[in-house]
């Protein structure tokens, strides 16, 4: 039985990774999860310099998930390279570094710094606010998506995954723009913008007012967007958004994702990613599927 998948020339032993920002850079979860069991570990977003993140409170539980406005707090690329990459190299898993920035120059600085590091792929978080365009997220304008993808690709030695925002009218327009810019793969969806109000205090629960909603409530939206994107592009997709169980992960594969990423579920049960690998294996045995790739895009009317 073959569980391995190939994404942009990189072979993962199975199609399961973890969503950026929900797993630290692996060390925090290593006492709960055997990182060797995962196809890849996707790190928390890293920028050219340390980011303090947003003021607190910045996390809130909501129906069917959670809101977060952490603001990509991170230690900066220098400390990350020294501490986190060397930690992950101990394990038999692929390393995907999530990259964030406020301008194209900031993204490029991180990508250049990672050129000769022993990592396998980079995931570019284009849901960051573009300071030069008045704070509008890079990922909501197809021209900006294509431009930043092309610029990053000039300097990247590793394959580039562009992480798409769902906060757009047409996800396929953004997917095609990333593909046109030279993206090697796509990951989707990032969080959906939400808000929670404390009715007793009549105040916003998050200091930032709005936050990114994740968790099981957004899963059907994510499945729909992965399916639409798979029809629109010719590059591999990593599907994410409310994956809590192996069934959720398999649904993503059937919709057209080559791999899946587990996010909010890690906070509920740190063993979720391993359980999903086991659940996929059990499903394949149950239905006599010899190769995981037979499931990719295999939904039919």
Question: Your description of this structure?
Answer:
The chain has 301 residues and is an alpha/beta fold. It has a single domain, classed as Alpha-Beta Barrel (TIM Barrel), CATH 3.20.20. Helix content is 30%, strand content 21%. Strands 3-18-17-12-11-8-7-4 form an eight-stranded parallel beta sheet. Helix 4 crosses helix 5, helix 5 runs parallel beside helix 6 and helix 6 (246-255) crosses helix 8 (272-287). It is globular and about 50 Å long. The model has no long low-confidence stretch (mean pLDDT 95).
Class by helix and strand content? alpha/beta
**What's the total count of β strands?**
18
What is the CATH architecture annotation?
A: Alpha-Beta Barrel
Element-by-element helix/strand order = EEEEEEHEHEEEHEHEEEEEHEHEHH
Strand fraction equals 15-25%
What is the global morphology? globular
Q: Spell out the CATH superfamily.
A: Aldolase class I
Whole-Å distance between the termini?
Answer: 27 Å
**Tally of domains:** 1
Summarize the amount of helix as a percent range.
25-40%
The residue-averaged pLDDT reads 95
Strand order of the largest sheet: 3-18-17-12-11-8-7-4
CATH fold-level topology: TIM Barrel
Low-confidence residue ranges: none
Major β-sheet annotation = 8 strands, parallel
Task: Quickly count the helices.
Answer: 8
């Amino acid at each position: 039985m073959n569980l391995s998948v190939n994404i942009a020339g990189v072979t993962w032993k199975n199609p399961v990774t973890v969503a950026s920002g929900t797993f630290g850079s692996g060390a925090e979860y290593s006492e709960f999860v055997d990182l060797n069991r995962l196809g890849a570990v996707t790190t928390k977003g890293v920028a050219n310099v340390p980011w303090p993140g947003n003021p607190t409170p910045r996390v809130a539980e909501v129906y069917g998930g959670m809101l977060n406005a952490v603001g990509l707090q991170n230690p900066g690329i220098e400390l990350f390279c020294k501490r986190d990459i060397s930690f992950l190299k101990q394990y038999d898993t692929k390393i995907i570094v999530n990259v964030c920035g406020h301008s194209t120059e900031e993204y490029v600085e991180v990508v250049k710094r990672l050129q000769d590091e022993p990592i396998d792929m980079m995931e570019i978080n284009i849901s960051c606010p573009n300071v030069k365009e008045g704070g509008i997220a890079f990922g909501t304008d197809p021209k900006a998506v294509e431009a930043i993808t092309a610029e990053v690709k000039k300097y990247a030695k590793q394959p580039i995954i562009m992480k798409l925002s769902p906060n757009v009218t047409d996800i396929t327009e953004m997917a095609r723009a990333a593909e046109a810019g030279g993206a090697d793969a796509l990951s989707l969806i990032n969080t959906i913008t939400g808000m929670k109000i404390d009715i007793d205090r009549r105040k916003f629960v998050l200091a930032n007012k709005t936050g990114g909603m994740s968790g099981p409530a957004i899963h059907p939206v994510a499945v729909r967007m992965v399916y639409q994107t798979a029809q629109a592009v010719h590059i591999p997709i990593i599907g994410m958004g409310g994956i809590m169980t192996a069934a959720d992960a398999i649904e993503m594969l059937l919709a057209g994702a080559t791999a899946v990423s587990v996010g909010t579920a890690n906070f509920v049960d740190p063993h979720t990613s391993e359980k999903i690998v086991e659940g996929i294996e059990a499903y394949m045995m149950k239905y006599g599927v010899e190769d995981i790739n037979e499931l990719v895009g295999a939904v039919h009317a």
